[in-house]
Amino acid sequence: MRESNEMNPDDKSLHSGLTSADDRVKLSHWLPPRHGIVPEIRIGNNWYSIFWLLPLGALVLIIGILLCLELRRIPVVQDFIARYPGSSSSAELSPSVGFPWWLRWQHYFNLFFLMFIIRSGIQILADHPRLYWNVHCTPGTEWFRFQKEVPKDRIWTAKDDSVTIPGWLGLPGIRHSIGLSRWWHFSFALFWLGNGIIFYLLLFLTPQWKRIVPLSWDVFPNALSVILQYLSLQFPSNEGWTRYNSAQQLAYFLTVFLAAPLAVVTGLLQAPALANRLTRLSRIINRQVARSIHFLVLCWFLIFTVIHVSLVFLTGASANINRMFAGINGESIEGWIVFLGAMLILILAWLGASPFTIKYARLVQKAGRKLLGKFFDYGESLSPQVVYTEKDISPFFWPNGKLPQGIEFERLIAEKFVSYRLSISGLVDHPCEFSMEELRAMPKQEQITNLYCIQGWSGIAKWGGVPMRYVLKVVHPRSDGRYAVFYSFGEGGEGGIYYDVHTLENMQHHLTILAYEMNGSPLSVLHGAPLRLICPNELGFKQVKWIRAIEFVSDFKHLGAGQGGYNEDHEFFGYRAPI
Ligand SMILES: Nc1nc2c(c(=O)[nH]1)N[C@H]1C(S)=C(S)[C@@H](COP(=O)(O)O)O[C@H]1N2
Ligand SMILES: [Mo]
Question: Which residues line ligand 1 (CB under 6 A)?
């Protein structure tokens, strides 16, 4: 180990190797578009396009209608419908209850928030367009994908795998924009959750809960009767002002009390901060299972919305719209005016959201951080529980990032990093340079942990290396050295050194290591040789590979674009990333 002089000459070149970044998304600098394929579902070894669901759905609908038309001629069925006309008497409300203003606003807010949640959610999914039922993300084991098979003849990174989805659908509608879509997704999830909690409260503080909570078993035969009546094209009477029919009751009940909470829980379980803590739960509902269920809940919401809206229009549009948008029991023009105004705002917001995000990307990032920062701080303070064993190690580990280029690094690889020196400088009492031999001679820590990439995949590996807290003891940061900056040999997507900033607390963490081994073997170049950061309480992008130098600083505003890391600068990621 060599004590270097106070001012490391390399620091200057490191700083100038960082690039600033635009505050808006410049499409000419961005990852070029890449189109995926029509979504496919795997059954056994065969993949089937979801396009088949359209003719299949139409066929089921036609057969259902023909069948129910026939059934309705049968006396037993007629008796059944007479006995269970479609609504449970226990659902009856006094006509004075009606649809109060708060209910109507909440219904609209719900729709408005969900629009952003769904669009940004689809955008997030497009960053790793595959879903699995197992804890690993081995290509070929997914059950759903909208990207072709992973090529085997070349390096195919997780970023390569991300796909473009249409701009009107995704938010913000450009490839690998997960940094931005997450701000939308989490912020509006928070608004939606707040709206939902108020809804639950008001529902039970007023008689409104009786509309959607079934109180008698006759809801099941009545729901069956309603479906028979709809499909035989003789609709039951619409008594929506005082009570919903039983099919409505069941559908609304399941959506409000099952699908919505499930969306929240499976969303949260994808965060390393929680998955690493709720270990018993995340053994069963691991991130990949949670992602799959989260997606199926989306499918439920979409199917529900299509059927719900169709029936609103088929079962007496004017009466239905007047109830839910104006609180009027009748067919007045007023309901339509409010409805059309509400839809106009919705459409304008829909059309404006993506262009706004692209133009004011930094603002979206900063607003998101303002709103959600506390949750991220809290998430970072939750220390992971280490529960994995050798048996849990993932057979495949997605690589990410751009390999370092240039002869300097080539030479290091060729000589097996013998002349490599890790430089640690900045606000420390003992600036040092360490060779690999010296690092290997330090205390070694091994840990089997899950690496959660922001894009959606995850992988379990055994990492071996020097605990960062030991390195801190040697170099001893000064009291103003509050942040550690990790500089890579590799560049980020748009050029310029890849770097990331961590708090000192995070560096003291007992699971933060400078890894030089992966799964018992020397770390491969693909995964970050000679040295990479492993800190399992953060998402993957903070775990810098190909570490060239570490610098301690009092602030990071002067580095790059000042956001605390390459992806924070260029891709609008959050600086703290435990979620
Ligand atoms: N230097 C550098 N380090 C990096 C990246 C990168 O692009 N450059 N990508 C990060 C991301 S996004 C992830 S998910 C992990 C992936 O590590 P792996 O390639 O070993 O799977 O590395 C992180 N470290
Ligand atoms: Mo990542």
Answer: 397-402, 453, 488, 490, 498, 527-528, 540-541, 543-546
**Residue 147, domain member (yes or no):** yes
Read off the pLDDT of residues 285-334 as tens digits, 9 standing for 90 and up: 999 999 999 999 999 999 999 999 999 999 999 999 999 999 999 999 99
Please answer whether residues 473 and 393 qualify as being in contact, where contact means their C-beta atoms are separated by less than 8 angstroms: no
Measure Cα distances from 321 to 107, 111, 244 in Å.
12, 14, 15
Indicate the number of domains in the chain: 2
Last residue of a domain, one of 340, 366, 381: 381
Q: Whose CA is nearest to atom 11 of ligand 1?
A: 541
Beta bridge partners of 433: 2, 423
Q: Among 161, 462, 543, 548, say which to mutate for ligand 1: greatest number of ligand atoms within 8 Å of CB.
A: 543
Q: Which amino acid is at 169?
A: L
Neighbouring residues of 157: CB distance < 8 A, sequence distance ≥ 6: 398, 399, 400, 401
Ligand 1, atom 7, residue with closest C-alpha: 401
* Tokens 């933060």 belong to residue: 512
457 CA: nearest ligand 1 atom: 14
pLDDT (0 to 100) of residue 90: 84
Structural domain span for residue 205: 103-215+245-381
Same domain, 468 and 334: no
What is the pTM assigned to this prediction?
Answer: 0.96
pLDDT digit string, tens, across residues 124-174: 999 999 999 999 999 999 999 999 999 999 999 999 999 999 989 999 999
Q: How far is the CA of 454 from the centre of ligand 2 (A)?
A: 5
Q: How far is the CA of 453 from the centre of ligand 2 (A)?
A: 4
The CA radius of gyration of the chain, in Å to the nearest whole number, is: 28
- Ligand 1 atom at minimum distance from 488 CA: 1
CB atoms within 10 A of CB 13: 12
